[in-house]
């Protein structure tokens, strides 16, 4: 299961839970991602379907990759540890993407389209949806027309730009209301809505 840390609530493992996790800063995750149009398409697919099941060779390969990252982290001298771990992570990412690509069909898109979509998503990941929720704003920042951004988003992800803006906005709102112990008025303020009524109408829609 691949999840965005900022949208994960409190986790309370059971007594018999055994867990090994990799925590990687966002900027290093970007360094690990292969530069391909599939990288963007695959990430967006994972965003909508974060759980998928593996078995056989795919599972064995990823388990070995995961163990190698842990081994490099524990046994590589300090001077070269980050570089060694990053190289192991790149292999893990490649094998994960290869396993994921085998599970779903995706349309080949141009590298330019993938780059624009990737930059659009990065803006949303950075929290720009807290202040800006119009397609026109993102199109201007990306130096394309709203129509062109709509076309690219639909081609790459099968979803419109408005869909992605709403998804990020609503995930943040859910997170704040479930885990932040804030009132509706306080959440509306944090998300830069003009008023509580505007905030309520947005949620209702």
Describe the structure using short key phrases.
205 residues, mainly alpha, Arc Repressor Mutant, subunit A, 2 domains, 0% strand
Verbal overview:
The chain has 205 residues and is mostly helical. The chain has two domains: 20-101, no CATH class; 111-204, Homeodomain-like (Arc Repressor Mutant, subunit A). Helices cover 63% and strands 0% of the residues. It is built from ten helices and no strands. It has helices spanning 26-32, 37-48, 56-75, 81-101, 111-125, 135-141, 146-157, 161-179, 184-190, 196-204. Helix 2 packs across helix 5, helix 5 (111-125) packs across helix 7 and helix 6 (135-141) crosses helix 7. The chain starts with 25 loop residues before the first helix and ends with a helix. The mean pLDDT is 84.
List the helices and strands and how they pair.
Blueprint: H1 26-32, H2 37-48, H3 56-75, H4 81-101, H5 111-125, H6 135-141, H7 146-157, H8 161-179, H9 184-190, H10 196-204
Helix pairs in contact: 2-5, 3-4, 5-7, 6-7
């Amino acid at each position: 299961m691949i999840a965005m840390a900022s949208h994960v609530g409190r986790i309370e493992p059971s007594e018999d839970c055994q867990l090994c996790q990799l925590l990687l800063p966002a900027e290093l995750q970007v360094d690990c991602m292969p530069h391909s149009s599939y990288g963007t398409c695959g990430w967006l697919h994972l965003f909508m379907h974060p759980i998928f099941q593996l078995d056989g060779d795919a599972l064995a390969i990823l388990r070995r990759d995961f163990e190698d990252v842990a081994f490099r982290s524990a046994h590589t001298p300090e001077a070269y540890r980050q570089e060694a771990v990053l190289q192991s992570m790149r292999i893990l990412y490649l094998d994960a993407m290869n396993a994921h690509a085998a599970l779903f069909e995706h349309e080949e898109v141009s590298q330019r389209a993938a780059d624009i979509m990737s930059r659009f998503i990065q803006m949303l990941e950075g929290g720009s949806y807290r202040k800006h929720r119009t397609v026109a704003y993102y199109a201007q920042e990306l130096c394309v027309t709203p129509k062109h951004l709509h076309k690219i988003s639909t081609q790459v992800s099968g979803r419109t730009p408005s869909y992605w803006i709403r998804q990020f906005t609503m995930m943040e709102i859910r997170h704040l209301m479930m885990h932040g112990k804030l009132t509706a008025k306080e959440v509306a303020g944090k998300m830069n809505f003009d008023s509580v009524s505007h905030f309520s109408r947005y949620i209702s829609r």
